[in-house]
């Protein structure tokens, strides 16, 4: 396996990232030549808008995990039409878990429907997913952690989205995500009742990414109003 650094020693890219993205781009263009593709490794197109049909792909989300642990990494594919998320696929490779979602038709794990989030649960009932960089810039979040059942990290944004979607965690908060980190998870989490916004509660720009909060409506409102404002 060939490994290179991108922005730093913990931001890696492998030949597998590039080859997987190339495979998807070639197959998409073969079958859907009018569709556009937006991907992490720069093999796909550079987009200035989301008009028409756009595939947003992350060939390996959690590359550092892939290199060092051989677990907690995923393949992520989302389809947006005129900026609206329509279809999403997240495949947890090591666990052989395929998460899927379609706008208005629910979300599934290996073909079994994922139930809606329990909207009555609060911060006191659940785990939180927040990385150290986010805690450094938003120290008030430490108060939220002290109320919760604890803190967990996976190191792969798409799988952290799925931890919220399946009820294993109450919220996922991050200050630095890219569109391909968000695209598929936003669709799937939305289908089971999660709210997905920027930290200030506004809509996410799917061309640039940025900060993010993923949680049930009650927990989302509490985090944004009490710990992130």
TrEMBL record:
Its EC number is 3.1.3.25. Keywords: Hydrolase, Magnesium, Metal-binding. It comes from the Bacteria. The keyword Magnesium applies. One of its GO terms (biological process) is signal transduction. It catalyses: a myo-inositol phosphate + H2O = myo-inositol + phosphate. It is an enzyme of class 3 (hydrolase). GO terms for molecular function: inositol monophosphate 1-phosphatase activity; metal ion binding. InterPro entries: Inositol_monophosphatase-like, Inositol_monophosphatase_CS. Its cofactor is Mg(2+). The keyword Transmembrane does not apply. Pfam families: Inositol_P (PF00459). Mg(2+) binds at residues 40, 58, 60-61, 181. This is inositol-phosphate phosphatase. It comes from Listeria grayi FSL F6-1183. The lineage of its organism: Bacteria, Bacillati, Bacillota, Bacilli, Bacillales.
């Amino acid at each position: 396996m060939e490994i290179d650094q991108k922005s730093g020693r913990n931001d890696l890219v492998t030949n597998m990232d590039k080859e997987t993205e190339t495979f998807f781009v070639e197959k998409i263009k073969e079958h859907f030549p009018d569709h556009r593709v937006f991907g992490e490794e720069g093999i796909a197109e550079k987009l200035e808008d989301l008009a028409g049909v756009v595939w947003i792909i992350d060939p390996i989300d959690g590359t550092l995990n892939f290199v060092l642990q051989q677990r907690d990494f995923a393949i992520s594919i989302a389809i947006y039409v005129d900026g609206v998320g329509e279809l999403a696929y997240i495949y947890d490779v090591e666990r052989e878990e395929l998460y899927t979602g379609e706008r208005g038709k629910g979300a599934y794990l290996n073909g079994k429907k994922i139930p809606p989030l329990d909207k009555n649960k609060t911060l006191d009932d659940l785990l939180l997913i927040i990385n150290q960089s986010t805690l450094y810039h938003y120290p008030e979040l430490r108060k939220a952690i002290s109320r919760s059942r604890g803190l967990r990290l996976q190191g792969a944004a798409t799988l952290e989205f799925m931890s919220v979607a399946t009820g294993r965690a109450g919220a996922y908060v991050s200050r630095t995500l890219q569109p391909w980190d968000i695209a598929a998870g936003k669709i799937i989490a939305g289908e089971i009742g999660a709210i997905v916004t920027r930290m200030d509660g506004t809509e996410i720009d799917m061309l640039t990414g940025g900060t993010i909060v993923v949680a049930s409506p009650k927990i989302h409102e509490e985090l944004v109003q009490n710990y992130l404002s």
